[in-house]
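Deviations from the work plan: none for this task. Representative record:
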Amino acid sequence: MQSEFPEVAIVIVTTIILLLFLVGFIVIMLILNQKSRLTQVQELRLMEEKYEQELLRTQLEIQENIFGNLSQEIHDNIGQSLTFVSLSLLTVPVENGSEAHLYIEESRKMLQKAIAELRDLSKGLQTERIIDIGLVKSIEFELQRLERTNLYKTSFNFTDVQNLMDSQTETILFRTVQEMLNNIVKHARASELEIHLTHENDTINLEIRDNGIGFDPGTLLEKEHSKGLGLRNIRKRAALIGGTCNINSIKNGGTTIRITIPVNKQPFHEHNEESQI
Amino acid sequence: MHPTDILDFIAEIPVYIIFIFLCLVLSLVSLAKKNPPPYLALFTCYLFLTLVIECVGWSFKRANSNNLTMYNLYGVVHLTYAIYLLSSFLQPGKAKQVFTWIMVFYPAIALLNIYFIQGPRHFGTYSYIVGAVIVVVCSINYFYQRIKFPGRDNLLRDPSFWIATGLLFFNAITVPYLGIVNFVANIPQYAYKTFSNINAVLSIILYSLFCISSVCSLNFRKLPS
């Protein structure tokens, strides 16, 4: 029995060493695998973000093209036709003060109003015009359009943001404002709206506030996810120009949407690679 | 036969044979479940063959008969299957192709060594060392791929991980020992016994890992690619 002791001890010690090696190997493999998996997940997320941004940028380019074509079509064809009809109405041989004359005058006034509205719409759709007159004037122009409906009281406060953004960033920001105004008109049932465009340190802040019926942002975002429109688009557009979007809304207490974007220190295509949704 | 004789006989059965049997039972249970892993049918056959060989080898040993020829041939089957199994776990690519070709050529070269170079009366150490080194390289390749392309499934729940760990561990450690087994056969009895016991411990570890892999196979579900 005593002579067998070294043999048993060798086997036990060897077994313990082997098991320690085995456990160590499994633990190291787990750690390496986990690390690699995390890196893979991060890479995948980054690729997805890049793909989404590329997709959105293409969508925006297509949208700008469509807007340009629409604007030209409205100005060159529909606008011209309506002007021609308006002028033709002037040549209708009717006596002044007659009932027919009154109808014709009423129709001409309505036609002139339609022509003016179409012209405004056409201007709002022109990308070149937005670049020419700048973001501030474009927003002012949109608000004037809303004011003319007599349904909204608007105010616009701004600080000088000229030369802080490139033209593409300005266009995207303006399209975002248009989308937000469109949402207010369609859903908010508001009577007053304010826009603040400010520049602080290295950021530009755009805030749109209304006194409408409000909504629950969480619930709405969930719905938007399935439809892929509205607020999600606003967030994506903000992300594309390297910004963030913050939505605050209270039921029957109005809505405030704030977009914060970094001051343009680098070209558009570079800083949108760092953006986050 | 007296009942006490039967009990004595059972008590004499080596522990690693019990582990092989357990492993075979777990494999059969996994195989009976829905959607078993694709390699499991052949793996169960391999375990059955291993169990038969180990039982016959043990009875030969009890009868003091020479079982070298049988173990030489089984070694070829065991290592060829190990290469096949590990290469089936690899991602499609050059490495997989290379190991598939090796799997085709290895048995021919090993048999050539056993019958014409070292002879059937000796343990085919050359072919064993080459086969075991190929298995180790293939396992390392598998682990390298698991780190580089980790996939979505948990490593600890993946049957292939436990099989590859077992094969790497067993072959990497037995290469130096079984590579000199012809020399070891002439060393003092107590040293030979120690080597045999360590070999038995390694077999127990290998089949324990196979058992874990079979348990993992019970919950195996193929992820969409």
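Chain B has a mean pLDDT of 86.
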